Amino acid sequence: MLNKNLLMGVLALALIFGLMIVGCGDGNGGGNDNQPVFSVSGEFQGAKNGNALFKAATTETARSVNDSYELTGELEDGDMLFRLRGTYDASTGNYTVSSASSFARYTINGNKNSATATLAVLDGEEWKSFIVSVTLKEVIVKDGDAEDYEGGLPAWAQGSWHDWWTEKQDDLGYSSFEAWSYFDKWYYQSYRWGVWKGNYEYSVTRYSVISAEALDNDVYDVIFSYPVYIATDVQKKAAVEKFFADNNHSAKFWNKPFEPWNTDVWNVKENSTLPEHAGKDFDNSVIWYICLNEAHEYTNAVKIINWDTFTTLVPNEDDWDEMWEAPWSEENFEDKRLAVVNFFDEKNISNFYYWGWHEPGYDGNQDHLTRTYSCWAPACEGDGMGSWWKETHYYLLWGNQVGIQGDWDLHGDLFIKWSTDDSLITYLRSQNVEPETWYTRVRIWKNNDTFMFFYYNGDNEAQNSHPAPACDTQSLTKIQSLTDFDPATYPDWSYNWYSNRTSPR
Q1: Mean pLDDT throughout 234-258?
Q2: Residue 303 — φ and ψ, nearest 5°?
Q3: DSSP assignment, residue 84?
Q4: Which of 36, 383, 400, 443 has the smallest count of CB within 10 Å of its CB?
C-alpha cells in the first residue's frame, strides 16, 4: 500500500534533484587539481539548420561534494558562437547551462544518463519553443569570440528556490502544494507537487526568458515562453507504453478519466442502496447533477460528470438543449430534477442523479472545497488499496499529462524518471507531435530574503487548454499588451520563493 509520507518524501527528493543532468567527472576533482570538477559536451537540434555543438566545464578545483560550482562554456550553432553559463551541483551531479542571442534562447539540462535542450527560436514576430534530446559525446566547438548576450534575469534571482503552502498545518495531505524552481539568466524551471484530500499531482514546466525589463526599485517585468506538446489520448497512451517497454517494466492501463472530486460515482452500482441505481455504473449510465453552489457561474445548471458516456448515449446534440433548458423553480429544485429525469426516461436512457454535495440543503454560500470524500478509485477497489499498489498502473490525465501509480518503494526511481527525463515529450516527438508555444508574463522583485514572483492579470486563454496561470496566451503581441497588474488578484498562481523554506506559508 502506498505510504503517503513516503510519497511526499520521494517527490520532494525528485523535485529538488530533478533537474536533468549529465557529464563526466565525479564531483571530487579526481585527485587532479589541473582537471575541472565537471565537464560535459554533446550536440542537439539547433535553432539554425543542422545541429548545435556545446562544451562546458567548471573552472575550479573541488571544494566539497556538497558545493555548487559555476559552469561555463561555448555553444556553436551554424556560423554563431555563444557563451554558456550555468551551475553544476556536486552533491547530485545536476547541471544547467543557458545562453541567448537576438534570435534564440538555449538551455541544456542533463544527468549522467541523459540530457535535453529547451529552445526558443524567433520566427518572424513570434517565438517557437520546443524541447529536444541531447546526444552526449565528445565534440569540437570552433574557436572564436563567443557572444555574451545582454539582459536576462538579474543575478539575485538566479539559483534554486522553494515555496510551500498548506491549508491545514496539522494535515498536509488535506490541501497543500510544494514547489521547487531553478532560475538562471535565460531559463526558469518549475516543479510543482500538489495534494487535494489524498489525491496527488505533479507537473514540470520549462520556460525560456524572452525579455526581462528592469523597472524602478529593482522590479523586473519578465516574459517567458514555453512549449506544450498537445497530444491525443492515443498518442499519450502509445508514449507511456513505449516508455515501460523500453524500461522492461510491466504496467496496466486504467481506462477511466481521473477526476478525484467525482470519486463517489465510481462505485455507485456496488455501494448505493437506492433502487433506482441498481445495475447502473459509470460506463453504462449518464451521471448528472444540478449545481446548487451560488458561488459558481453555472448555478442551477445541469452538469454531466461522465461526458464520454453521455455523448455516446445521447448522440443527438439537438436533444441537449431540451435538457439544459429544463424549467427551474427558486422554491423547489425538484421541478428541474424531475424534468431531466423525464427527459432521460422518455428516451429510455439509463441515468442517475449524482447524490453528493449538490443535494438539497447544501449551503450554496459555503466554500465548495470543504466537501470530503474517500480515496480515489480504483485504489479503493477489490480488497482495498493493497492490491492496487502491488501493480503499476497508468492513466490519462487532462491536458498534456499522464499519471503513473504503483509501488514507490520498489519502482520510485522509474516513476520519477518519467517526469524528470521529459519522457512523454521524447516519445511524442517520435510520433511527430509538434509543440504549441505559449507565453506568460510576471513581475519579480526581492523582498528581504523572499523572491516575489507574481503573474500578470488579464488573458486567460490557457485555462481550457492546459494547467497554467491565468495570464497565459499563445500570442506574444497579446501578452505584451497586458497592462493590468495587481499581485493580489491571482495569489494562487504566484509564489514566494525562498532559498531555504522550512515551514509552509
Answers
A1: 87
A2: -120, 140
A3: E
A4: 383
Contacts within 8 Å (CB) and 24+ apart, 167-175: 169/504, 172/8, 172/504, 173/4, 173/197, 173/198, 175/369
Whether residue 434 contacts residue 474, with contact meaning beta carbons closer than 8 Å, is answered with no
Interatomic CA distance for residues 23 and 39, integer angstroms: 6
What is the DSSP code (8-state) at residue 234? Answer: H
* Domain assignment of residue 149, yes or no: no
Q: What is the 3-state secondary structure (H, E, C) of 360-391?
A: CCCCCCCCHHHCCCCCCCCCCCCCCHHHHHCC
Task: Name 7's Cβ contacts closer than 8 Å, sequence gap at least 6.
Answer: 200, 408
Helix residue ranges per DSSP H, 17-160: none
Residues 194 and 343 in one domain: no
Question: What does each C-alpha distance from 231 to 19, 26, 133, 420 come to in angstroms?
Answer: 24, 39, 18, 19
Q: Which helix (H) or strand (E) holds 77?
A: strand 68-77
Is the pTM value of this prediction over 0.85?
Answer: no
In a domain, 103, yes or no: yes
- Give pLDDT tens digits for 96-141: 999 999 999 999 988 777 788 999 999 888 899 999 889 999 999 9
- Residue 329 and residue 384 in one domain: no
pLDDT at position 260 over 80: no
Same domain for 72 and 48? yes
Burial of 22: CB neighbours in 10 Å, binned 0-12, 13-18, 19+: buried
Query: How would you list the strands of the sheet with 126-133, edge to edge?
Result: 126-133, 115-123, 104-110, 94-100, 80-89, 68-77, 51-58, 39-45, 135-136
Q: Would you tell me how many other CB atoms lie within 10 Å of the CB of residue 505?
A: 11
Both 115 and 224 in one domain: the answer is no
Q: Which three cell numbers stand for residue 296?
A: 459558481
Count of other CB atoms within 10 angstroms of residue 138: 8
> By residue range, what is the domain housing residue 238?
233-256+378-430
Enumerate residues 6+ apart whose C-beta is below 8 A from 491: none
Which residues lie closer than 8 Å to 330 by C-beta, 6 or more apart?
Answer: none
| Cα 223 to Cα 475: distance, rounded to the nearest angstrom | 12
Chain mean position to CA 156: 26
